Amino acid sequence: MADASQQLAILESNGTAAPPSFDATLAAHGLPPLSAEGIEVLQVNVGKLCNQTCRHCHVDAGPDRRESMSWETAEAVIRVLKASKVATLDITGGAPEMNPNFCWLVEQARRLDRHVIDRCNLTILVAPGYEYLPEFLAHQQVEIVASLPCYLEENCDTQRGDGVFQKSIQALRRLNELGYGQAEGSLSLNLVYNPLGPTLPPSQTTLEAEYRRELRERYGVQFSRLYTITNLPISRFLDDLLRTGQYEAYMQKLVESFHPRAPASVMCRTMLSVDWQGRLYDCDFNQMLDLRLAGDPAWTIHNVDLDSIAKRSIITGRHCYGCTAGSGSGCQGSLVT
């Protein structure tokens, strides 16, 4: 697979078929360049080790990856959280639970009375050696955001691997037993839908109703919300687009589907992304393309002054069309109702 610099060169190519720059499209709609409005969420990618190898994964995570956040960097994350008013610690990966410091990060953040999100692939909750996780997450009142790209077994396994769907259902049932996803409860269990191919997600409201009905009737499973997220042309998904000759058509679809109301709500405006080495980015997608913060890319979680970057200019590229196409797309699903 192409590395970050090669992928960025593909996305930003100046060939005759290249779409307009994202900043040019903003200007054409009378919109200002993107800038941050503060830091409400610290999203921390604790590494690329994962028990799955999903076709759409923009992190290129898998069982053979060894990138993992160290204790020193995890400690710096908590130190910054403690010294700030950032309300949410959003932990992602890979399978973030496979990092040896995951539970410590959760416990320390909860002691600071911060909201904690675990971006979970579900199957890790039933993997040998990790069976304690559902009870731990429930005890710490962690919000779970879990990938489940379809309520049909065949479609889900096509994207995420054979046997993943049944393990996911097993995990969801265990979470329901602990109180997750219950209408009268406080434990949030949110599911994430990604399209199987180079298409935009359907209506989030309509699809959520379908998921709710099908998962309840087929498997007795309940959940809180469904988030629809567009596949960005990064990492494995970009490689797949190039291999099948669909890259230019998909980029054109994203550009033509630009929604002028979406940029006001994109996640990078209120988020700071931290990689497993402590380097800082505007969002997880910029992280995968190694697009550091504007102004002073030397900032890391070890030396950052959050006040100095809270209102920073945001680094954009053509991949940003993925967050502003159709109803928009972010860590909390669609942006435009």
Describe the structure.
The protein is α/β, with parallel strands linked by helices and 337 residues long. It has a single domain (4-324), classed as TIM Barrel, CATH 3.20.20. 34% of the residues lie in helices and 11% in strands. It has 13 helices and eight strands. The chain has an eight-stranded mixed beta sheet with strand order 6-5-4-3-2-1-7-8. Helix 8 links the parallel strand 5 (189-193) and strand 6. The mean pLDDT is 91.
Question: Any key phrases for this structure?
Answer:
single chain, 8-stranded mixed sheet, 13 helices, 34% helix
* Strands, total number: 8
Helix tally? 13
* Helical residue percent band: 25-40%
Order of helices and strands: HHEHEHEHEHHEHEHHEEHHH
The CATH class, by name, is Alpha Beta
How much β-strand is present in the residues? 5-15%
Strand order of the largest sheet: 6-5-4-3-2-1-7-8
The mean pLDDT is 91
Separation, N- and C-terminal Cα atoms: 36 Å
Q: Rg to the nearest angstrom?
A: 19 Å
What is the subunit arrangement here?
Answer: single chain
CATH overall fold name: TIM Barrel
Low-confidence segments: none
The major sheet is characterized as:
8 strands, mixed
CATH architecture: Alpha-Beta Barrel
Q: Please tell me the total number of domains.
A: 1
